[in-house]
Specification:
The protein is α/β, with parallel strands linked by helices and about 180 residues long. It has two domains: about 30 residues; about 140 residues, Lipoprotein like domain (Double Stranded RNA Binding Domain), CATH 3.30.160. The chain is about 40% helix and about 30% strand. Strands 1, 2, 3, 4 and 5 form a five-stranded mixed beta sheet that branches. α2 crosses α4. The longest helix is centred in the N-terminal third of the chain and has 24 residues. The radius of gyration is 24 Å and the shape is elongated. The relative contact order is 0.15.
Length: about 180
């Protein structure tokens, strides 16, 4: 009877361990072992905002270098490519003051993001990302101290940084 319990315990432990190994080594979000580098493709800009694609590409490249997720490589010789496309950017009234004059605007952005495996010629990940930032109307900014003011340009820079952060989070959330 004691031998049967020991055998059962050994089998149970092996079963649990094999389940853990399978779960963590074969999950679909892990980085394929052959991917050793990544290139950041030029962001496609489908908006009327001048240079938005180039600004986002530079910001994402800087974020990738800072985070040191994978070595950055030339698109011609890389194992994988990150592609982004800014679909739209919009401004909408966010709040009014007590006299019903616009106080804040919401600057929103939506972007397509994908990570492509160049070695096996297949998509690893694809998402639609969106986020926003708030900025103040010119009239409300004029009532604030310069350090408290938030212009559209500042909100746009923060939003691009936030979107670059969102891309890196998406990359690492599946690992």
């Amino acid at each position: 009877m004691k031998r049967a319990k020991t055998t059962f315990a050994v089998i149970a432990v092996l079963f649990v361990l094999s389940g853990c190994i399978w779960k963590y080594s074969a999950r679909p979000g892990t980085i394929p072992p052959h991917i050793k580098s990544v290139a950041v493709g030029e962001t496609e800009n489908n908006t009327a905002e001048f240079n938005l694609g180039q600004e986002f590409t530079a910001m994402l490249t800087d974020k990738m270098q800072t985070e040191n997720l994978l070595p950055l490589s030339d698109p011609a010789s890389t194992h994988s490519v990150i592609s982004t496309s800014i679909k739209n950017i919009s401004d909408a009234v966010y709040s009014y003051d007590e006299t019903e004059i616009v106080k804040e605007y919401r600057l929103s952005m939506q972007m397509d993001f994908s990570w492509y495996d160049e070695v096996n010629d297949k998509e690893i990940m694809s998402k639609v990302l969106s986020d926003y930032e708030i900025y103040y109307s010119d009239q409300y900014n004029s009532t604030l101290a310069p350090v408290d003011q938030v212009t559209r340009e500042e909100a746009l820079e923060r939003l691009l940084d936030k979107m670059a952060e969102n891309v890196t989070v998406e990359l690492t959330s599946q690992w």
